[in-house]
Amino acid sequence: MIVGTVEMHTGGEPTRIVVEGWPPFEARTLLGKRREAKERFDHLRRGLMLEPRGHDGMYGALLVEPDHPEADLAVLFMHNEGYSTMCGHATIALARWAVESGRVKRQAGETVVRLQCPCGLVVAHVADDGFVRFESVPSFVHALDRTVPTRTWGPLAVDIAYGGAFYVFLAADSIGLDLHHSPMQAIADAGEEITRAAAKAIPIDHPEAPDLAFLYGTILTDGRDGANDVPSRNVCVFAGRQVDRSPTGSGVSARMALQMARRQAQPGERRLFESCTGAVFSGCALRSAPPIGLRRAVVVEVGGRGHFTGESRFRFDADDPLREGFSLTQIPP
């Protein structure tokens, strides 16, 4: 079996786009395909994301047929642990790929790419120079100033917001970390512990899509708001200590929802957010959206740039005992 991919990165965070070789799906809806991928094809996800073809920080995007009438293409996002519901850095990469590959016909000025994600339809605009801005699905605050008991730091006050996925937010200095100087391992360990503790302490629900109702990760911030063209640094930890090298597009959407809820930003005001690699995404709350259940929602525009790194053709030999991939962090001592 051979699987063909296009390799890209956004701010250092990889996107392995699967363009050929994946077996056909039986499910008709995108969320149905996501469930089917877990049940029937998870060995392929592991084989493409983990060693020897990938690594614990790999991220993937599987192109599938859309069922949304307005979508140009549809995608399932994958990583070392499973399948996420939204991914901003991969959306930026996919939108640029769609235009430069000819999947979506290039238009003068900006080309519109409509991408169906598990969380909904995302509309991206690709400039002639490759810069991408996209309107994410409606974002909202799930919880403010909720107390989460932790083993290491005791009770912590955290926020939870949704930007296509649910994230815990708190300032890094509240737990004695500095996002510019603390060891990345300490940041990753903290993010994983807080995610697990918050998942136990705070029930997550999405009124419109139960499949999306889970806590995806923790975003530690430097406490600033990203105003006045001074980027605020944040680090997203997800999928068992995986660290996002990009500023996290769905996280930017969720951060803007938080800022709007706390009246730290107004519609149309741009904010800048920086990752651990120094890559910067812009975020702007464009307008109010219809409520999600009883929660106020906003539409956020996220901007950034993806780059091509290569193309690959991966073999899955039947006699290879490691064909389904492995992770050293998951091998028992």
SSE blueprint and pairings:
Blueprint: E1 2-10, E2 13-20, H1 30-40, H2 42-49, E3 60-64, E4 73-78, E5 83-84, H3 88-100, E6 110-117, E7 120-127, E8 131-135, E9 139-150, E10 154-162, E11 166-171, H4 184-201, E12 215-221, E13 232-238, E14 242-243, H5 249-261, E15 270-274, E16 280-292, E17 295-315
Parallel strand pairs: 2-3, 4-6, 11-12, 13-15
Antiparallel strand pairs: 1-2, 1-17, 3-4, 4-5, 6-7, 7-8, 8-17, 9-10, 9-17, 10-11, 12-13, 13-14, 15-16, 16-17
Structure write-up:
With 333 residues, the chain is of the alpha+beta class. The protein has two domains: 131 residues, Diaminopimelate Epimerase, Chain A, domain 1 (Roll), CATH 3.10.310.10; 168 residues, Diaminopimelate Epimerase, Chain A, domain 1, CATH 3.10.310. The chain has five helices and 17 strands. It has a 17-stranded mixed sheet that branches. β7 and β8 form a beta hairpin. The longest helix is centred in the middle third of the chain and has 18 residues. The radius of gyration is 19 Å and the shape is globular. The relative contact order is 0.18.
Short account of what is shown:
By secondary structure, this protein is α+β, with helices and mostly antiparallel strands.
Q: CATH architecture of the largest domain, please?
A: Roll
Radius of gyration: 19 Å
Order of helices and strands: EEHHEEEHEEEEEEHEEEHEEE
Q: What's the number of extended β-strand segments?
A: 17
Note the gap between the termini: 32 Å
Helix share bin: 10-25%
CATH superfamily of the largest domain: Diaminopimelate Epimerase, Chain A, domain 1
Determine the structural class based on helices, strands and strand pairing. Answer: alpha+beta
The CATH class of the largest domain is identified as Alpha Beta
Kindly identify the CATH topology of the largest domain. Diaminopimelate Epimerase, Chain A, domain 1
Weakly predicted, low-confidence segments: none
How would you classify the quaternary structure? Answer: single chain
Mean pLDDT: 94
